[in-house]
Write a structure and sequence with these properties.
single chain; about 120 residues; alpha+beta; Arc Repressor Mutant, subunit A; three-stranded antiparallel beta sheet; 3 strands; about 60% helix; elongated
């Protein structure tokens, strides 16, 4: 397995993290935007809240990258909504983002652990 590329800047980190959360959520099945936001909120034990001002631009970006595909359908309450599903290319991207994320977590953990040794 190749080494994960680091995030090049703060925007890459933030967008990459949101993209990863959305793609992971869509691994559980197709969802509309509100459902994605709710799933992230609930699965994070209510620690993360994705606002619509961030969610929909991210979904449009993911769709342009062909990492997600959308289609109109009816919700359980019979309202028309755009449902998103992860594509095979999106699954590859999720795997890549998870690698980068794990690398970042290990790097931060190493810095925090180094601080403990000198205390």
């Amino acid at each position: 397995m190749k080494k994960a590329e680091p995030y090049s800047n703060r925007i890459d980190l933030l967008q990459g993290t949101l993209d990863m959360l959305i793609l992971q959520t869509l691994q559980w099945g197709p969802m509309h935007g509100y459902g994605i936001a709710q799933a992230i909120h609930i699965k994070s034990t209510e620690a993360l809240k994705v606002e619509t001002g961030s969610l929909y631009p991210a979904l449009h970006r993911l769709e342009r990258q062909k990492w997600v595909k959308s289609e109109w359908d009816l919700t359980d309450s019979k309202q028309r909504a755009k449902f998103y599903r992860i594509t095979p290319k999106g699954k590859e991207q999720l795997s890549s983002e998870l690698g980068r994320w794990r690398h970042m977590v290990r790097a931060i953990g190493a810095v925090l652990e180094t601080g403990k040794e000198s205390s």
